[in-house]
Amino acid sequence: MIDYLAVTLAMLGPAENRYANPAAWERLHTQLDIRLPTDYQALVDAYAPIQLNGHLYLHHPATEPWNLGQWITDTVRAWNDVPWDELGLDADEDPRALFGLTELSFGTRNGLWPIASTDRGETIFLITEDDAAPRFLVEDGEGGWARYDMSFAEWLYRYLIGEDMAGLNTSAFYPGPVQLRRLPMTVDERPQPWNGPDRGM
Predict the structure, then answer these.
(1) Residue 2: inside a domain
(2) pLDDT tens-digit readout, 127-153
(3) Which of 68, 84, 118, 123 gives the lowest tally of CB atoms within 10 Å of its CB?
(4) Largest CA distance in the chain
(5) By three-state DSSP, how is residue 75 classified?
(6) Residue 16 belongs to what H/E stretch?
(7) In-domain check, residue 155
(8) Residue 102 falls inside a structural domain
(9) How many structural domains are present in the chain?
(10) Is 184 helix (H, G, I), strand (E, B) or coil?
(11) Full-model pTM
(12) Is residue 16 in a domain?
């Protein structure tokens, strides 16, 4: 069985853990009233705030700029403003019908929680409807939804090797090492990108 956290960390390169802070995660979990997956926490601590391969953004709960808690709160508010019952969605467009959700809510105990996004408009949501193994819904930015029953580390690994991880024809594959870019922490900072290890791709 593949240890997806280990292979993803190996693909990205040495963990920096610049802002790793267990107390920040505890404050976030108390604020949200849920617990985010441990592999997600490990990857965020290792690299965030970061942009991966020019598209995927990960925020961090211990930083003021790019703060994960604030981003989740703002994103939940935006998604809750969508009048879902008034959209007249067909069954193949409605995530409730597609994935058997009892309700479509964001930021609730049994709802969807945004945990990452891309500059292509995709949003990755953790499903917290029950205590089952990790599951994610990804909205592709154009109203399409896809479900992935796997850990976040596996989702990220498959995303980085070029699989369709936001529905059909959504791959964002770049050959060679993964490119990482720190997100600026001040208005004057211009972080330079760097590459992870060679991965033979």
Answers:
(1) no
(2) 986 666 779 999 999 999 999 999 999
(3) 84
(4) 49
(5) helix
(6) none
(7) yes
(8) yes
(9) 1
(10) coil
(11) 0.95
(12) no
